[in-house]
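Workshop exercise sheet. Pairs work together: one partner reads the sequence aloud, the other fills in the structure field after running the prediction. Swap roles for the next sheet.
Pair: D.N. / O.F.
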Amino acid sequence: MKHLKAFEDALSAIHGEGRYRVFVDLQRHKGRFPKATARFEDGEREVTIWCSNDYLGMGQDDHVINSMHDAIDSFGAGSGGTRNISGTTRYHVDLEQELADLHEKESALLFTSGYVSNDATLSTLGKILPNLIIYSDALNHASMIEGIRRSGADRRIFRHNDVDHLRALMENDDPNRPKVIAFESVYSMDGDFGRMEEICDLADEFNALTYLDEVHAVGMYGHNGAGVAEKLGLASRIDIIEGTLGKAFGVMGGYIASHETVIDAIRSMASGFIFTTSTCPVMAAGALASVRKLRTDEGRKLRSMQQANAASLKQKFRDAGLPVMDSPSHIVPLLVGDPERCKALSDTLLFDFGIYVQPINYPTVPRGTERLRFTPSPVHDEVMMDELVASILAVWKQLGLDKAA
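Structure field:
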């Protein structure tokens, strides 16, 4: 093959930096989450999953699964193509209406993933708003960065959660140019919250649109599980809300919710929507069931249990002297600070203790901040937590890692 050495060199560099990733073959078992079977070359063993983004276990929920069975029995497997060519289904329509209502918006639009919804929407805003400036938080997700890059708009990167820096950038620009502030509600690697109210105040002052990524917050916060904007009572001040169906809702897909005219324009112009096979009806049906359930008292109970377990695990790490990073959200990051030892810690926990948690290395996080990222669910119990802490302590000492100051 031509140019093969370039590929070999690229892989060699990744190996040399200790950030080569190996996928673990996991067989999840319905009704037994967070337990799973890991398959290795020399056999199988039961493991406990500690890093799933299915935060509430809705991918295992009987109501969700039964809804998907009904859909596949009625409609078959695939969607048959794009919605422009192959039409739509009642599941797509009902789900979009449910998501719009969830976020207190007029309309919503489904995409095949949260990555695509960010990329497609942000890139299209540059076509709709000539001379646009997009202000982007420095820690925004790669999908947002890619969409902003492809938009053709002028970009301004403000320091993470630094509203003073954002203000300074906005003051320096032409007040007559259209502007969008793009930020997240929960930043998934550090687990901190975006400064939403202050950003909305700046948007009002400078006549800017607000674009909010709620992917790690939908299902998790607010009375109905609409996210941090709902929790803070700020949904009406957010112009475009983007979310995912693949994390707390437990299925797959992404979406945006906004004013009906905004959604119609994105639907009509976004190549990431127009030229992509639509979400399978079975996925839309499962997501619809999940969204509806998480708007009930049962959903509120799951959120409460998850938050309690996250707080408990953080405290157990602190009590053990482990360097848990400050995080006000449901995400529990444990700082390691070295890529090779971070991977060694993850590997040893898996192979020796049956604990599955993936290392988070560069480029997902900056070099020197490598970490393990734990996401306790409502069904991780105290025994599992105590076993986790004891196992980490044993490997921590073995690797010569430092305890918290």
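Discussion prompt: Residues 3-59+299-399 form a domain with the Aspartate Aminotransferase, domain 1 fold (CATH 3.90.1150.10). What would you look at next?
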